[in-house]
Design brief:
This protein is of the alpha/beta class. Helices cover 37% and strands 14% of the residues. Strands 3-2-1-4-5-6-7-8 form an 8-stranded mixed β-sheet, sandwiched between helices. Helix 1 links the parallel strand 1 and strand 2.
Length: 306
């Protein structure tokens, strides 16, 4: 199916059976991740909630219908990412890189990286590559249409925002990184002859608790107001993720809401910025990410051995 053939008004009720499939969903304790986990489990998948707060994860798991388990994962800590991957010992059909932070106050991770770049890009980059030998179907990474804001680019000379930290610009950079990661991942998978495909999605403007963690009381108040007036529900915001996780799409697809400005609506093809389609940027970011994380590309070979 081509990217132009998305079904009109596709909803979670259209999910095909996921029986026999295993899916990891990061950041699944609330918002888009919780909806994604709920619907995939309801459709028959075995869903692994990969979360920082395992107590919250267990509480959510107790409310879900289907086969669910909880495992600890902190994407802002590469040792946690490595531990999660080291503990994985079975085939994995789908990895959903959902967890993220948005416009948070300046902070550094235990590994010394800027928090948003680490959580939104470096953590998922490392997790995906470490799990690739087990992956059999696809990787879905949640990006944002914020990457299309004017002037947004990857600052390779100050990737950790050490010279100047601007919360929203750091967030936008990390979301552009998600799309460049997806692009280069798909190129490498195709080149290696791997059956795995890479996809990106964005939820439009969805009301989740992500906005409540943004920097500054004034910004949080503004976002609370616009959430009430403009945002669609987290259930609607999760539809692009569910679509990309289950539908026959070409590699490097990008799915978002089909309404005006891609803010609301049902799954449809999404627009990328010119920077997000730049192969040189994608390759350069990949090489930098490998150096920063110490994790390299190791796909599952077509014959089934990595």
């Amino acid at each position: 199916m081509s990217a132009t053939n998305h079904r009109t008004h596709w909803t979670a009720a259209d999910l095909p059976s996921q029986a026999g499939r295993t899916v990891v969903v990061t950041g699944a304790t609330s918002g888009l991740g919780a909806v994604t986990a709920r619907e995939l489990a309801r459709a028959g998948a075995h869903v692994v909630l990969a979360v920082r707060d395992t107590a919250r994860g267990e509480r959510l798991a107790a409310t879900l219908t289907g086969s669910v388990e909880v495992r600890p994962l902190d994407l802002a800590d590469l040792s946690s990412v490595r531990a999660f991957a080291a503990g994985w010992d079975r085939p994995l059909d789908v990895l959903v890189n959902n967890a993220g932070v948005m416009a948070v106050p300046e902070a550094r991770t235990a590994d010394g990286f800027e928090m948003q770049f680490a959580t939104n890009h470096l953590g998922p980059f490392a997790l995906t590559n470490l799990l690739l030998p087990h992956l059999t179907d696809r990787v879905v990474t949640v990006a944002s249409n914020a990457h299309r804001r004017p002037g947004v680019d990857i600052d390779f000379d100050d990737i950790n925002s050490e010279r100047a930290y601007r919360p929203w610009r750091a967030y936008q950079q990390s979301k552009l990184a998600n799309l460049l990661f997806t692009r280069e991942l798909q190129r490498r998978l195709s080149e290696a002859g791997s059956p795995v495909t890479a996809h990106a999605v964005h939820p439009g403007y969805a009301a989740t608790n992500l906005q409540g963690r943004s920097a500054g009381a004034a910004q949080r108040l503004m976002l609370a107001v616009t959430n009430r007036l403009m945002a669609q529900s987290d259930a609607m915001g999760a539809l692009p993720t569910l679509y990309a996780a289950t539908q026959p799409l070409p590699g490097n697809s990008y799915t978002g809401p089909d309404g005006r400005g891609e803010l609301r609506g049902h799954p449809g093809p999404a627009r990328r910025s010119p920077h997000a389609e730049d192969d040189l940027r994608a390759s350069r970011l990949w090489d930098l990410s490998e150096r920063l994380t110490g994790v390299r590309f190791t796909p599952l070979a077509p014959g089934g051995r990595s």
